[in-house]
Amino acid sequence: MKTLPKIAGISAATALIASPAFAQAGVEAADHTAFILNSVLFLMGGFLVFWMAAGFTMLEAGLVRSKNVTMQLTKNVVLFALAAIAYYLIGYNLMYPLGNWSIGSDETGGYIGAFGTAVLEMVGVSAENADDLGYASTGSDFFFQLMFAAATASIVSGALAERIKLWPFLIFTIILTSLIYPIQASWKWGGGFLDSQWGFLDFAGSTVVHSVGGWAALAGAIILGPRIGKYAKDGKVIPILGSNLPLATLGMFILWMGWFGFNGGSQLAMGTIGDVADVSRIFANTNAAAAGGVIAALVLTQLLYKKPDLTMILNGALAGLVAITAEPLTPSLGQATLIGAVGGMIVVFAVPFLDKLKIDDTVGAIPVHLFAGIWGTLAVLFTNPDATFIGQIVPIAIIGVFVFGVSYAVWMILKVTVGIRVSEENEIMGLDMSELGMEAYPEFTNR
Amino acid sequence: MKLIIAVIKPFKLEEVREALTAVGVQGLTVSEVKGYGRQSGHTEIYRGAEYVVNFVPKVKLELAVADGDVASVIETLAKTAKTGKIGDGKIFVLDIEQTLRIRTGETGEEAL
């Protein structure tokens, strides 16, 4: 059976050379080529976004103290696996109901998508039997979209690091990736009411992915409370230094690389000259925004604090990337750089601002993903004439209220039932030994 | 016999070790330590919040020397560890009551 297609291929090629109908066969092949190239874009984008899980993990491992590194690594790898399963069982069809809304409709606005597990196309599917020949293979689409759900969960883990219990965090991850994230994402990307009724524009998810992670993290950080020793009784902020800045920097670079897939893949098509040129624009603009974020954070920390702060520069790069995510296509390179630079500036001011409110965000996830995400979603107005102020700000608020509200409720329920915070004694000892009995750096004195 | 304890700047260690070897010192113990003296550390800023670096990294040398060598060892230490800037460290000299080489059982200056 396996050799049959090859033989058919050879005879088809011979036929092509011999046949005067060469041009017609070329047109037919082009249709399939678009399907193939679109699928390749999703697969390439998907494995780049997958790699962002490594980026988040290294960033967080570097910014927590050495006594909590193993826990941070554990949470990141397990959350990814849970997200993969949750998105398969519930998330995918809830997010992409293809018109089969449980509540609402394509015309009047969809609110809750379809319930059911994700199903791939049959093995060796033919063009006639493909789910959507004008788009891409279902496997590539599922793979790509799954990575975004996992990224949302990764955002939450960093903000709550060094004091949250493992299991309640994992339960929250399941709820976030199976329900909270897919439901609100369906409102935009599944063709739901934010898309059809409000004309909301969010290309790759400054709001739909990043702010969602940020809102969920904010709710968790408020309920969880700050780490012991972060804020003195007189209100003074006591910095808790990260244990490994080389790892944090590596994590930032991995995220920067992954973002090319995150934004580039979100073009969702690569089968025409226009699409492939757009994907290229997106790669270049994404890179420019990160550069803008880095330089803004560098200059601002130098001016404000007399010395550049590497951790802020890392956050600045990521804030630039988050900011460009809502519209990486229409800006010029200069505009993209500026949009990213404003993201970097937001981070430098937002980190001390959260400290003033005594909201302890271990790695700066809320400034980067929530604040810069809101900025990026509004910045669409500057370069895309299709965007309206109301069409951007109202969906930002709706998603914010929904995600913050539901997350707050879930964290509260977890707090009063199983508890979300480790004991004071265990927190001081470090989560690695108290919760896992395993140190990341057993040959050194942990602090 | 005297025990000489010197707390010096870490980047001076190699230079000090070479100079001590040159004046006949045959063994020495080194630890990485942190501490402060009159300078009492300095302030830095991390993610927008000030913090004090109270304990500055130093290297601590411990060496046991015969009475006749004490003066030259101290002089060598003081000369090579000195930069003239704040934080050069200190040298302490203590009496040794007893010394024993574990492998052979030798005691006193024989064991140095």
How does this model look, in words?
The complex is a heterodimer of chains A (447) and B (112). Chain A is mostly helical and 447 residues long. Chain A has one domain: Ammonium transporter AmtB like domains (Ammonium transporter fold), CATH 1.10.3430. Chain A is built from 15 helices and two strands. Chain A has a two-stranded antiparallel ribbon with strand order 1-2. In chain A, helix 3 packs across helix 4. Chain A is globular, with a radius of gyration of 23 Å. In chain B, a hairpin with a 2-residue loop joins strand 3 and strand 4. The radius of gyration of chain B is 17 Å and the shape is elongated. In chain B, the strands form two sheets. Chain B has a four-stranded antiparallel sheet, covered by helices on one side. Chain B starts with a strand and ends in a 17-residue tail after the last strand. Chain B contains two helices and six strands. The model of chain B has no long low-confidence stretch (mean pLDDT 93). Classes of the chains: A mainly alpha (447), B alpha+beta (112). Chains A and B meet through helix 11 of A and strand 3 and strand 4 of B.
Structural class of chain A: mainly alpha
CATH topology of chain B: Alpha-Beta Plaits
| CA distance, first residue to last residue of chain A | 62 Å
Number of domains of chain A: 1
What is the CA-atom radius of gyration of chain A, in angstroms?
23 Å
The shape of chain B is: elongated
- Residue share in β-strands of chain B: 35-45%
- In the CATH hierarchy, the architecture of chain B is 2-Layer Sandwich
CA distance, first residue to last residue of chain B: 9 Å
CATH superfamily of chain A: Ammonium transporter AmtB like domains
- Any idea of the CATH class of chain A? Mainly Alpha
How do the strands line up in the largest sheet of chain A? 1-2
What is the averaged pLDDT score of chain B? 93
- The overall pLDDT average of chain A reads 93
How would a textbook summarize the main sheet of chain B?
Answer: 4 strands, antiparallel
Number of helices of chain A: 15
